[in-house]
Amino acid sequence: MERELAAGLAEVGRTYGGEGDVEVIADRREVAVLRVGEVAVKAHLPGADAAALTERLRLVSHPALAELLLAPLSPLPVVVRDRLVTAWPLGTPVDPDAPDAAPWEQSARLLARLHRVDTGQLAPLPRSAGPDRFLRTVDELRAHDGPEVREVFGAFGTLPPLRPPVRALLTHGDWHLGQLVTVPGGWRLIDVDDLGAGDPEWDLARPAALHAIGVLEPREWDVFLGAYRAERGPAVPAEGNPWPALDVTARALVVQMAARSLLTARRTGTALDDLDLALVDACARIGADMRHG
Amino acid sequence: MQCPKCHANMRTYDRMGVHIEQCDGCRGVFLDYGELEALNRLEGQWAQPAPPPPAAAPYPAQPAWGAGHHGGHYGHRKQGFGRLFFSS
Question: pTM of the entire structure?
Answer without folding.
Answer: 0.82
